[in-house]
Design goal:
The complex is a heterodimer.
Chain A: H1 3-21, H2 25-45, H3 49-86
Helix pairs in contact in A: 1-2, 2-3
Chain B: H1 3-26, H2 38-50, H3 55-63, H4 65-85, E1 93-96, H5 98-103, H6 111-133, H7 142-158, H8 162-168, H9 171-195, H10 218-245, E2 246-249
Antiparallel strand pairs in B: 1-2
The chains are: A mainly alpha, B mainly alpha.
Chain lengths: 87, 254
């Protein structure tokens, strides 16, 4: 195993833990996309560039946007619920 | 359950998992120590029989093209499900939410973010097209390139112009791309059935390895899948964006 591979494995281990311990879903989403970048590096140094290409777009663009939009919708509903309670 | 009991349970389960994991990892073959036959066969015949230099694409769109047909329709069906669940109810009307737009930080996106998005859009589109059409030559292909293509219009949204994104990529174009791509890939398979006698058997001239138009049906299949994947992602993104940024009012609306 090369130094690059060990570094990528370590980055994935640290990144995965960071996603779990992130305090709230919003911050978690941002940490998740950084974690996705480390996964991309892992796939690349383990000679799977095809998988790395998919992972980089999905993890940095696709997944965070979907989660952020879902979070926004949840917050909208919560705010609407509060407003209805006030009335 | 008390905190103590939960910790004891976690400790036991964690220790058990750790033991199994270490035992399993100790038995793994070394990195690069491949014992299978299939991979070596593909490596041997990929260039000589299919003239493709990226064997992952050759595997996806030729050797196991039928699997890919199923996978492609999994994506198609799941996006169809999203559209069906988040559909506009009869009598509902869309209007951009003024209050939400004001609150939404994207609407006041900074000049730097807008400039960056503007630079990103052509780069993303060019990279997406490149990855799609070079599927048979270099790592990449329809799936990867399709997602990169879909990220292009999404950058318009990053620039704080959600409703402009609908002008750049209207829903009907997204849906057409999704449907034509899915049907196009199935048609490549049917072409094999009609012209070569077997579903998904190559029926196009193979060409010279390394040339853009080589490897028979691979570029065609790659373009079809790229169209389908980018359409599917854009349809899904648009539906999600509609949910978050547009107010629906009407009899069935909330």
């Amino acid at each position: 195993m090369t130094v690059l591979q060990i570094a990528a494995l370590a980055a994935v281990a640290i990144g995965g833990t960071a996603v779990v311990v992130a305090p709230n879903p919003l911050k978690q989403t941002l940490v998740l996309s950084v974690y996705g970048m480390s996964l991309t590096a892992l796939f690349f140094v383990f000679q799977a560039p095809d998988v790395a290409l998919s992972e980089i777009v999905i993890s940095t663009v696709g997944l965070p946007v979907m989660i952020l939009l879902a979070l926004r919708k949840v917050r909208q509903n919560e705010r609407q619920g509060e407003r209805e309670e006030e009335q | 359950m008390s905190r103590r009991a939960r910790l004891v349970m976690f400790g036991l389960a964690g220790a058990g998992f750790g033991v199994v994991l270490v035992l399993g990892l100790a038995g793994l073959p070394a990195f690069g120590d491949y014992k299978g036959v299939y991979g070596n066969v593909i490596n041997g015949i990929g260039v000589t029989e299919r003239r493709a230099t990226d064997l992952v694409t050759a595997l996806n769109f030729d050797f196991r093209a039928f699997d890919t047909l199923g996978e492609e329709f999994i994506l198609f069906t799941s996006v169809l499900g999203v559209v069906l669940i988040l559909r506009q109810m009869r009598g509902e009307q869309d209007r951009p939410s003024q209050r939400e737009a004001e609150e939404h930080s994207f609407a006041g996106a900074s000049a730097a973010l807008r400039a960056l998005s503007l630079v990103l859009i052509p780069m993303l589109l060019a990279l997406g097209v490149y990855v799609v059409v070079h599927g048979a030559l270099t790592p990449g292909g329809g799936f990867q390139g399709g997602v990169i293509l879909a990220a292009g219009p999404l950058a318009v949204f990053l620039a704080g112009r959600y409703l402009r994104m609908k002008t750049v990529a209207p829903t009907i174009v997204e849906e057409l791309g999704d449907a034509i791509g899915a049907a196009g890939y199935a048609l490549v398979g049917l072409g094999g059935l009609v012209f070569a006698g077997v579903f998904f058997k190559n029926f196009l001239p193979l060409g010279i390895p390394g040339h853009l138009l080589s490897a028979g049906q691979l570029p065609l299949a790659s373009i079809a899948v790229g169209l389908e994947v980018s359409g599917a992602f854009l349809v899904a993104f648009s539906e999600f964006l509609d949910q978050a940024l547009v107010v629906r009012s009407g009899p069935g609306g909330s």
